[in-house]
Amino acid sequence: MSSLQMHAIAGFLRLTRKRRAAPDAAASAEPPRPPGKLAKRHVVSTRTVGGFTCHTVAPHDRKAERAVVYLHGGAYISHISPQHWQLISQLTDAGLRVEVPHYGLASRYTYRDAYPFVTTVYDQLLDEVNPGQVTIMGDSAGGGLALGVAQSLAAAGVPQPGRLVLIAPWLDLTLSNPGIPDTEARDPWLTSSSLLEAGRGWAGGDDPAQPRLSPINGPLAPLPPIDVYIGTRDLFFPDVRRLQELAAEAKADVNVTVCEGAVHVYPLVPAPEGRAAARAIVRSLAS
To answer: What is the mean pLDDT of the chain?
Structure first.
């Protein structure tokens, strides 16, 4: 049974967020800088990689032996949010270095721009950190991108990270899973119509079912262990269940944590379930 806070958040989202998504008004501008309090708490540096911005957030008091590449969600049309920075700060508090690549947003940019950018950030990180100590992590659209990037690394023979962590990942841009309509009726936030529109922009005219856009259609066997977090009131829940089935067929190591009654990207949500999940994620990556 979900908490009162989760119920309240679901009600608020249904009233304020379940509407047709539109690209971020500032999508063509520079991505937002890390919050001032995060910059005071951690060592934050900024660099440009292939024309895109990447922030590094590292602990003040120690050299980080483990690292995370964090790919934020937002349907590929919205910039990073305060909730993302909060989780990034928690990871850094635990001694992890976090790379935050700000991939370009649709429809000005597409996945064709994001893949080489994120791959270069990952390659640069491997100059300093053993790949087994690196986690590629993402939520929602960023979770789909994280899985797709890992699959592309495997295809290119690039060393895999030690782990993938996917929070409510958008695994299939086509949203063709027959279980989605029933789940969408319970989801207070996401709508398939707005997601399909955003996905078309991100695909840039290419087939949205191809694995780099819909990584549920890509290989799972060559990948490292994958941890997935999903709520049952999340439009992406049926595709995560399908991912479990495919993983079992491929004998891939995919561990799914399902939170009953939780909304989309619940580990980022200020409810008891979200805080517990965030702590579990941080603890697993820091240990």
So the answer is: 95
The number of beta carbons lying within 10 Å of the beta carbon of residue 95 is 17
Q: Per residue, what are the HEC states of 135-197?
A: EEEEECHHHHHHHHHHHHHHHHCCCCCCEEEEECCCCCCCCCCCCHHHHHHHCCCCCHHHHHH
> What is the C-alpha separation between 283 and 287, in angstroms, rounded?
6
Which phi and psi (to 5°) does residue 148 adopt? -65, -40
- pLDDT above 90 covers a percentage of the chain that reads 90
d(CA 252, CA 247): 5
The confidence score (pLDDT) of residue 63 equals: 85
- For the whole model, what pTM was predicted? 0.96
Position 232, amino acid = T
Backbone angles phi, psi at 48, to 5 degrees: -110, 130
> DSSP letters along 7-36, please?
HHHHHHHHHHT-S-----TTTTSPPPPPPH
Helix (H) or strand (E) holding 259: strand 254-263
Taking the alpha carbons of 34, 40, 44, 46 in that order, is the dihedral positive or negative? positive
pLDDT reported for residue 17: 74
The CATH code belonging to domain 4-286 is 3.40.50.1820
Q: Are 247 and 220 in contact (CB under 8 A)?
A: yes
Beta bridge partner(s), residue 228 = 166, 256
Q: What are the backbone angles phi and psi of residue 255, rounded to the nearest 5°? A: -110, 120
Residues near 48 by beta carbon (within 8 Å), at least 6 away in sequence? 54
* Closest C-alpha among 283, 261, 287 to residue 272: 261
pLDDT digits (tens, 9 = 90+) for 6-30: 999 999 999 987 654 555 554 556 7
